[in-house]
Amino acid sequence: MPTHHVFEYKNTFTLESGATLPGFQLAYTTFGTLNAQRSNVVWVCHALTGSADFTDWWCELFGEGKLYDPREWFVICANTLGGCYGSTGPLSVNPETQQPYYHAFPQLTNRDVVAAFDLLRKDLELERVHTLIGGSLGGQQALEWALLQPDVFERLIHVASNARHSPWGIAFNETQRMAIRQDPSWATDTETAGSEGLKTARAIAMLSYRHYNTYAATQQEPGNSITDNFRASSYQVHQGEKLAKRFNAYTYWLLSKAMDSHHAGRDRGGLEKALAQLKAKSLFVGVNSDVLFPVEEQRFLHEHVAHSSFYLIQSDYGHDGFLVEFPQLTEAITNFYEEEERLEELSFEREER
């Protein structure tokens, strides 16, 4: 099982906006053992409502006998800054006021998040990372981090994500935040502010995470006489209530805004120039039925990152296919590593001639 840790940063932390935090903490987990060469590090970036426990939401990738076996790899994942699973976020106590931040927590970008991650990396004295992997929001953060520290990350595995968040994706997120704003409790400074709105926001989000075919396969009524109380209706309610029990509206708001702000080309001369700076050997993975991060976004990355690889997952689960189709994702990553080894062997043979 992963081991849980907390990293404390006690200096002023300046955000991309110019706002500051008087220090922060990151909750993180590690799995496996760092080898003597410190060359077996895999760093995982989680999605919007994920946690540092990657064996929970990507369980089929990590474990004995699986792709990332702890006997061979040292895996690490930190709960994002602004999160609600142990890292400093809106429900944390502001040391300057001795009160929770609530609405006063400053807005974050993905660059702020990975700058915090990088302080943890330096504290752990990890000069090189074998593989940086993330999906969705985590994929956005992984890309930003690989651009921030191009000499640290040897390989990037970027799953169901993009180089810049689209107007379509922003519109989905804003519609969810509109639901939170309609909750009268959102105007209060309380731990549960916006919790009813969060339920609706999550129900809206499910329509972007899944696909028509997903609902047809799992929520179709068995009979011919139903006129109310549909399975699909109760499913939406259930999903909203389930998230509200484990998450809070502040963090949901904050991280959805961070997702919207994602633009790898910001202050780097545009996307093409930014992506040309990426040094990590890169694999871009898309899901054929993803309506939130459609495949053309991963193909764009593949086309603009030299010598990169691309893999298309076939799934009826839409965007959530990256959390469901484990055999295909395992195959994608395995092929990526094996192709690199094959090219290295060919290069070695040419040198020997």
From TrEMBL:
Source superkingdom: Bacteria
Coiled-coil regions listed: none
Swiss-Prot/TrEMBL catalytic activity: L-homoserine + acetyl-CoA = O-acetyl-L-homoserine + CoA
One GO CC term on file: cytoplasm
EC id: 2.3.1.31
Residue span(s) of domain AB hydrolase-1: 41-325
InterPro entries recorded: AB_hydrolase_1 (IPR000073), AB_hydrolase_fold (IPR029058), HAT_MetX-like (IPR008220)
Positions with a binding annotation for substrate: R202, D320
Top EC class, one word: transferase
Pathway, per record: Amino-acid biosynthesis; L-methionine biosynthesis via de novo pathway; O-acetyl-L-homoserine from L-homoserine: step 1/1
Molecular-function GO terms, alphabetical: homoserine O-acetyltransferase activity
Any one GO biological process: methionine biosynthetic process
Family annotation (SUPFAM superfamilies): alpha/beta-Hydrolases
Residues forming the catalytic site: S136, D290, H319
Keywords: Acyltransferase, Amino-acid biosynthesis, Cytoplasm, Methionine biosynthesis, Transferase
Subcellular location field: Cytoplasm
Family: Belongs to the AB hydrolase superfamily. MetX family.
Function: Transfers an acetyl group from acetyl-CoA to L-homoserine, forming acetyl-L-homoserine.
NCBIfam families registered for this protein in UniProt: homoserO_Ac_trn, PRK00175.1
Quaternary organization: Homodimer.
Record protein name field: Homoserine O-acetyltransferase
